[in-house]
Amino acid sequence: MKYDKILLEHGSGGLLSNELVANIFLPHFSNSFLERLEDSAILSIGNHKFCFTTDSYVVSPVFFPGGNIGSLAVHGTVNDLAVCGGKPLYMSAGYILEEGFPFAALTEIVQSMADAARGAGIKIVTGDTKVVSRGAVDGIFINTSGIGIIEYEGDLSIKSIKPGDAVILNGTIGDHGAAIMKARENLGLEADIVSDSAPLNGLIAEILKVSTDIHCMRDATRGGLGAILAEIAKSANVDININEQDIPICENVRGICEILGLDPLFLANEGKMVVFCPPAEASKVITVMKGHEFGRNAAVIGNAGESGQGRVVLKTSIGGERIIDLPTGELVPRIC
Amino acid sequence: MKYIDEYRDPALVKGLLAKIRKAADRIDHPVTIMEICGSHTYAIGRFGIRNMLPDNINLVSGPGCPVCVTSARDVDIALHLSRQDKVIFATFGDMLRVPGSNGDSLQRQRAEGSDVRVVSSSDECIELAQNFPQKEIIMMGIGFETTTPTVAVTVDRCRKKRIENFSVFSVHKVVPPAIEALIADPGLNIDGFLCPGHVSTMIGSNAYSMIPEAGCAAVITGFEPVDILEGIWMILEQIANNKFEVAIQYSRGVKPEGNVRAMDLVQSLFKTDTVEWRGIGPIPESGLVFRDVYAAYDTLKKFSVPDIQSVDVKGCGCGDILRGIKSPDQCALFRKVCTPANPIGPCMVSSEGSCSTYYKYH
After folding, report:
1. How does B166-204 read in b/e, with b if 16+ C-beta sit within 10 Å?
2. Does B308 reside within a domain?
3. Which of B4, B48, B65 sits opposite A321 (nearest CB)?
4. Taking the CB of residue A168, how many other CB atoms lie within 10 A of it?
5. What is the CATH number of the domain that holds A230?
6. Contact across the interface for B107 and A251, Cβ inside 8 Å
7. Which of A68, A86, A163, B217 is the most exposed place for a label (fewest CB within 10 A)?
């Protein structure tokens, strides 16, 4: 279908987001760095390899249990660099502020950005501020870019995934999406759900220290674990087999999903990643993860299959099978 | 999770599958079972139940997803209403992508500038009406017997609170006439019906007597995997014994007489009328329209809707697919024009509808 206007769904991280990139941005910007379509571009300057990423943060509400737009912006940028094997070094912060936005809120956001940056060992070295008239943005939007240096020798890429690779997840899914949903919707639900927003660079550095044979890492943000796996399977042209019962999930997140008819596989995360590595390396990775505060609930959730149809096949909790595809539509409660 | 995991117990599932295989062995022909309700379709897809069943059992999805069977004309009217000045158009979220004529949808209309808002409950409209007194709140009233009472309660509350800037565009539908239309078709190829659990908590089991009379099995079934498998087994038993009745698997929710109080409230607000179902056509007495005493809350009375020339897509095979006569790949539009990202018929609109599921698995 042809679209002559942008729909909200174009920003959902699902099928339409992919089409937007493929049909509008790629043909115009085409170059070999961009065409990898991974979380960061990999660049060489002299003898050094760098990774470079950018992201924009428009979360609503701006403050949510477990963080705010500022800490989220730092963690998101750090994680996009770290999953490409980069040590995050420097980042920028651009603010678009709505006329009337409270100083107290801005101060709190900037303070938590500073704390998050310190915690992740990245420096905010350049920035910009724009103010627009009331209604032109929703309070505050933040754009960041980040740069990191890659010292890891292996090629961390979707293309490096091999048949038989273990698929490892560092913890529970859907916490961020459920926390935002609960804060945003007037649901009258009382449940303790906290965003998982966290910097993963420390954990990733430890993983890359114990194994020199990691094939690919991706953080499972917008679109959730389901969208990331579907994207990887298509892009690498391998089947990925996942066991539903091995995927960690908090009881409260499960509960809110059951009530609203949402699928936690497609809820956003901000501190979760999947790691693809040979099965022989899996136990080392799991041990490191379980010893780290951001990987305590880590689990092997499946493997890359032999055949190459590019599908994600989920073995359900009762032993059935279903295909996990890129989500279409916005994530909304179902009525039927 | 308590009260959920018990109904997803792998050991119980294994036992039920063995019973299903045994019953299926006693039947010497392929069995087609229709799950009427969209929530069954969703659960069957979500838990991968379809491919756990013996080869001679075929599950087809019926007309029981209210969003999917909303006609292009009703969507066109919704789009027209959402374009009116000072209107906030409130809808349940899964209505956003349903296409009207020419593929327009509420989602696209919102991008064009209409104030379309997603609500999770009809009562949110009361808040909208109070917060925006200068605007008219129109709610798209959609759903079957399970949803209609909640909308009826909202309208009743608005009347008592004297809220006047709220109305409902009712495209509510009722289930039994659709079943009657299906079984009246001489080409029908369905052996048993998984009847909807939640709708039945409202209308009771007595409403389905026409199914066994037509020589088909009927089991009112819950929505967890253990429920669905037990429902399928009970259907197979009826077929194997050639003895048909309306059985209740979902006994923890359904009484033969249903929820009389809720149905009385709905009856006091609405009366039945012939309405159009996407992919099926007009079905007598299958829609709910406001009674005249509630005209103040009837969008179609408050707003004049011009005679919209709606275009139904030609060649859509959903009508035959819903009756179990065609499989999705026998439809001329399937995979060519009609895809999950660009759905045309009801079976593709629902992410777990027959066509959408077939698209993903084949």
Report:
1. bbbbbbbbbbbbbbbbbbebeebebbbbbbbbbbbbbbb
2. no
3. B48
4. 25
5. 3.90.650.10
6. no
7. A163
Domain end position, chosen among A150, A184, A212: A150
A100: how many CB neighbours lie within 10 A of its CB? Answer: 10
Contact assessment for residue A308 and residue A237, using Cβ atoms and an 8 Å cutoff: yes
Contact A332 B96 (CB under 8 A): yes
Cβ neighbour number for residue A5 with a 10 Å cutoff:
10
Q: Are residues B157 and B296 in the same domain?
A: yes
What is the least distance, in Å, from the CA of A254 to any CA of chain B? 8
Peptide bond into A279 cis (omega under 30): no
Q: Which of residues 241-280 of A touch B (CB under 8 A)?
A: 251, 254-255, 258, 260-261, 263
Helix axes A201-210, A69-82, angle to 10 degrees: 20
Q: Give the residue on A whose Cα is nearest the Cα of B146.
A: A336
We report the CATH number of the domain holding residue B229 as 3.40.50.11750
Residues A70 and A182 in one domain: no
Which DSSP category does B111 fall into?
Answer: H
CATH number, domain with residue A119: 3.30.1330.10
Q: Which two tokens stand for residue A216?
A: 């690919």
A150: which residues sit within 8 A by CB, 6+ positions away?
A42, A49, A50, A51, A84, A85, A86, A87
Same domain, B117 and B264: yes
Q: Which residues of B touch A333 (CB under 8 A)?
A: 92-93, 120
Tell whether B309 is covered by a domain.
Answer: no
Domain's final residue, options A150, A177, A200: A150
On whether both A109 and A184 belong to a single domain, the answer is: no
Is the same domain home to A143 and A44? yes
Structural domain count, chain B = 3
Domain that holds residue A58: 31-150
Question: Which DSSP state fits A264?
Answer: G
- Whether residue B254 lies inside any domain: the answer is no
Judge if A140 and A191 occupy the same domain.
Answer: no
Enumerate the β-bridge partners of residue A87. A149
pLDDT digits (tens), chain B, 362 positions: 888 999 999 999 999 999 999 999 999 999 999 999 888 988 998 899 998 999 999 998 888 888 888 998 999 999 999 999 999 999 998 888 888 888 889 999 999 999 999 998 899 999 999 999 999 999 999 999 999 999 999 999 999 999 999 999 999 999 999 999 888 888 878 999 999 999 999 999 999 999 999 999 999 999 999 999 999 999 999 999 999 999 999 999 999 999 999 999 999 999 999 999 987 889 999 999 999 999 999 999 999 999 888 877 778 888 788 777 788 899 999 999 898 888 887 788 776 677 887 887 77
Residue B102 lies in a domain: yes
| Contact with chain B for residue A188, Cβ under 8 A | no
Structure tokens at B172: 């509510």
- Prediction pTM value: 0.90
One domain, residues A138 and A217? no
* DSSP symbols for A141-194: EEEEEEEEEE---S--SGGG--TT-EEEE-S-SSHHHHHHHHHHS---------
